[in-house]
Amino acid sequence: MTFVYPKWSGPAELLTIWNVLLDQGSLLHKLTLAEEEVEEFLKKYSDGLNDSSNVRGWNYRVVR
User: Fold this and answer.
1) CA-to-CA distance for 32 and 54, rounded, in angstroms?
2) In this predicted structure, what is the pLDDT of residue 32?
3) 42 in helix, strand or coil?
4) Cα 57 → chain centroid
5) How far apart are CA 64 and CA 55, in angstroms?
6) Interval 5-53: pLDDT, tens
7) Average pLDDT over every residue of 45-64
8) Which residues contact 13 (CB under 8 A, 6 or more apart)?
9) pLDDT at res. 14
10) pLDDT for residue 61
């Protein structure tokens, strides 16, 4: 899911939350892309990327 974060001055940011699927066994149609390929695609167009488990959230913390 991608959110558009508009700004008064400057371009809008695209912030994405990715629901990483750990078990594909429940899917009727299997994924044709590997998780790494999906992540690379999302990184290319998103200004910020996190997942549903907040694993990638540390990249966007104010205090590291």
Assistant:
1) 24
2) 84
3) helix
4) 10
5) 14
6) 998 999 999 989 888 766 777 778 877 888 889 889 998 999 888 887 7
7) 74
8) 4, 5, 7, 47, 48
9) 92
10) 61
Backbone angles phi, psi at 40, to 5 degrees: -60, -40
Q: Quickly list H helices, the chain.
A: 35-45
pLDDT at res. 3 = 92
Cα separation, 27 vs 29, whole angstroms? 5
Decide the pairing of beta strands 2-5 and 13-18. Answer: antiparallel
What are the φ/ψ torsions at residue 29 (nearest 5 degrees)? -120, 120
Structure tokens at 18: 């990715």
Phi, psi angles (nearest 5°) of residue 19:
-90, 95
Q: In whole angstroms, what is the distance from residue 38 CA to residue 32 CA?
A: 10
